[in-house]
Design brief:
single chain; alpha+beta; 4-stranded mixed sheet; 4-stranded antiparallel sheet
């Protein structure tokens, strides 16, 4: 495989880059307010993206998307990720949910949720983690769904349900089987409209001071039709893993876009500012920041593209995805941290986007599984090859 951006992808990648840097990034101070003006601005950006053929590029064409193949979209996602609002403005923030529904939803579910989802007419939300429960071991989840007649009755509490306060529905992971059943076959996914009686938003939980729509939700005898089951009963873990695998690659490519942006700001700053009679760019310790950041960005990028290539070839790539989730999140945090250091006091203020980016970067080491879980599971998979008398052949697996 080649790590260069394919020639046939460059035109759309360049167009997305221009859209993000010229329209989305300058709008961030307003978008961060999450008020009516921000909502109107997002709708206008979405209208522009649709008009210019940049809408929902990673979604299948039959769903109304751009139909970019997985690996092509990965290259586009890299520049789209420069801004956290890029995926909302370009209609790709629903990709994980739309692919999940595309594969598992019944026809009535597709009509009600999938079509408006791709056009950003509705927001989705996904509920797995629970307060007080170690999400690194999801077999401990306590939310239950009991089939009573032709209805599922859901009882429990979830949190970090992103956009629950705006979503039309939530995909809820809950226990549907008896204690005797294997824990990995005990959970199911159920679609719950957010206007269902008993669905109560307890609070919006700020993350490191940022209001991001991460809601805690109480399910108090929530009743939905039996047909709202998504996919086979007891297959919640299978569906979740299929959703999370490519999703982690999308996260890592967006992180690369964020890191590139921080790197650009850092290098520009080194030429703009002087201290002790010469530009900061002449200082060896500042040059160390450039070197370390370049090495980490490039390393994470090649690891991520390698994992994407594996997925595109039909492999599960669990080792490769586990590695990039940890390496990518660390890289992003480190690069932004150095960029803040180079900016000095200004880097701690809202005069640059770095303070906002830094807080989001720290959360990346916890979302979709903390570093420690990915480190342990990845090491175990590698060591298992040696236990069997083999080895890990880099570049061949």
């Amino acid at each position: 495989m080649s790590f260069e951006v394919p020639e046939h992808v460059r035109p759309v990648r360049d167009a997305v880059y221009a859209f993000i840097t010229e329209r989305v990034e300058p709008a961030e101070p307003i978008l961060q307010r999450m008020d009516e003006e921000a909502a109107a601005l997002i709708r206008d950006l979405q209208r522009q993206a649709k008009a210019e053929g940049l809408w929902a590029l990673g979604h299948p064409k039959e769903l109304g998307g751009g139909g970019l193949p997985f690996l092509d979209y990965v290259y586009v996602n890299e520049v789209q990720g420069r801004s956290e609002y890029g995926q909302i403005a370009l209609g790709t923030f629903t990709l994980q949910d739309s692919l999940m529904l595309h594969k598992y939803a019944a026809e009535t579910q597709r009509e009600r949720f999938l079509k408006p989802l791709v056009q950003a007419e509705i927001f989705p939300s996904f509920a797995m983690t629970e307060p007080g429960i170690s999400s690194s071991d999801p077999t401990q989840l306590t939310t239950t769904a009991t089939l009573e007649g032709d209805e599922w009755v859901i009882r429990g509490r979830k949190w970090f349900t992103t956009f629950a306060n705006r979503a039309a529905y939530t995909t809820v992971m809950c226990r549907t089987e008896t204690p005797e059943t294997s824990p990995y076959l005990s959970y199911s996914m159920i679609l719950v409209p957010t206007d269902t009686p008993g669905y109560t938003i307890v609070r919006d939980t700020p993350v490191l001071g940022l209001d991001g729509g991460h809601c805690e939700v109480l399910y108090d005898d929530v009743r939905v039709p039996a047909e709202n089951l998504l996919g086979p009963r007891g297959h919640g873990f299978v569906i979740a893993q299929e959703r999370l695998g490519p999703g982690r690659i999308f996260h890592c490519m967006r992180w690369l876009g964020q890191a590139q942006r921080a790197f650009d700001l850092m290098c520009a700053r080194l030429h703009e500012r002087s201290a002790f009679g010469e530009p900061l760019a002449k200082k060896q310790l500042m040059q160390q920041h450039v070197f370390d950041s370049y090495a980490e960005i490039q390393s994470a990028r090649l690891l991520t593209l390698h994992a994407a290539h594996k997925i595109d070839a039909g492999e599960q790539a669990r080792v490769e995805i586990g590695v990039i989730k940890v390496a990518g999140a660390r890289m992003l945090h480190n690069v932004i941290d150095r960029a803040i250091q180079v900016h000095g006091a200004q880097g701690l203020t809202e005069d640059t986007p770095l303070d906002h980016m830094y807080r989001h970067a720290r959360a990346g080491r916890i979302y979709d599984g903390p570093d420690e879980v990915h480190i342990t599971t990845t090491a175990r998979r590698v060591l298992k090859e040696y236990e069997k008398g083999g080895n890990w052949e880099f570049g061949l697996r």
